[in-house]
Fold this protein.
Amino acid sequence: MAIRANLRAALKSTRESFGKVFSMARRNRLTSDQLDDLEEGMLLADMGMETVTQVIENIERNKGKNTWDAIRLLLHKNLKAGEFDISELKPPLVILVIGVNGTGKTTTSAKLAHWFRKTGNSVVLIGADTYRAAAIQQLEIWARRLDIRLISNPKTKDPSSVVYDGLKSARQAGTDVVIIDTAGRLHTSRNLMAELEKIVRVTRTHFPEIQVKTLLTLDANLGQNSNSQTRQFLEYLDIDGIILTKMDGSAKGGIIFSITQNYHIPVWFIGIGEHLEDLEPFVADVFLDGLFEEGVLDRK
């Protein structure tokens, strides 16, 4: 299966890192020192304290039993709870892509447009990054490559007005999916976050028939900083899903466990490369198959 092979290749660094962390867990009994080493390794892999605590408690409860199987089943259960069934999405649909600078929002917006068009939907891109001309130029390149309409307005600094005009045009055209690329912002900037609130408010007020989903892009390489970003964005907006980007270069990757555990926000997609096709719907079984050498056994 090509998708599984692509994902497995992208997770090579993460898999090697996790292999070292969990190598000792393949023994049925762990000494106190080995348990401490395992705990430290999981934390260094950015798995997060809540998940690490669950794993250690699980091992201690199951002393003398198969430690490795118990860990895998626990990790599988946690990730399974963080899945989202993409097939549940029904047009008309608006996806608002948010995140801090450098997390890959613009490229991810293009990848989303490509993915939804491959699934038979008509798609429009809206360039709502009114601060950075380079972002609009980048979107223009992607839109031409995809032969998808891009709506933007370089004459205004008000992203809400661009979104309003874009959604009005998309509704008149009967477009299935609208993807809005927003400006990268510091999650600690109140004024910039207020702009996001306004975009959501304008969209839901003037286009009540359209379902609006807010997706947060998180760079897998940033580790626990992604937790901080998620927490800050949640103070201003409801977040419907996570897109974990740049999984192809992360030697850690454990942040996906931390995010699903701490915030109970489903992971919609993971980015595994720079090409348009390098966006995969997140499926716990497939992800774990790519993460561990022997795959996930015993789906329970």
